[in-house]
Specification:
By secondary structure, this protein is of the alpha+beta class. It has one domain (about 1-70). The chain contains two helices and three strands. The protein has helices at about 1-25, 40-50, and strands at about 25-30, 55-65, 65-70. The chain has a three-stranded antiparallel sheet. The longest helix is centred in the N-terminal third of the chain and has 23 residues, at about 1-25. The chain starts with a helix and ends with a strand. The structure holds 2-acetamido-2-deoxy-beta-D-glucopyranose. 2-acetamido-2-deoxy-beta-D-glucopyranose binds near residues 40, 41 and 57.
Length: about 70
């Protein structure tokens, strides 16, 4: 009985930690075009356009004729 409770508690703990890590984890993706004047906004729009959740903030790096977005969801 006690070990079952322990197992349950650790399961809840692990899923909580995993969920939290996923939330903080930055999302990276490469899109066509440059970063533009406001890379933050450009990247947020790119993520929305591809159907992902709207990031709260992004960093943009020009990458040839593409740009790399690193966003926090
Ligand atoms: C990026 O844009 C969002 C929404 O406009 C804003 O809330 C956020 O603070 C901006 N982040 C940076 C790093 O400028």
């Amino acid at each position: 009985m006690k070990s079952v409770t322990l197992l349950l508690v650790s399961c809840i703990l692990v899923s909580f930690i995993m969920g939290h890590v996923k939330e903080v984890e930055a999302q990276k993706d490469i899109f066509l075009g440059g970063c533009g004047k406001d890379g933050n906004k450009t990247c947020i729009n790119d993520f929305v356009k591809k159907g992902a959740n709207k990031p709260s903030s992004c960093e943009c790096d020009d990458f040839g004729d593409e740009h790399l977005c690193r966003c926090v969801m």
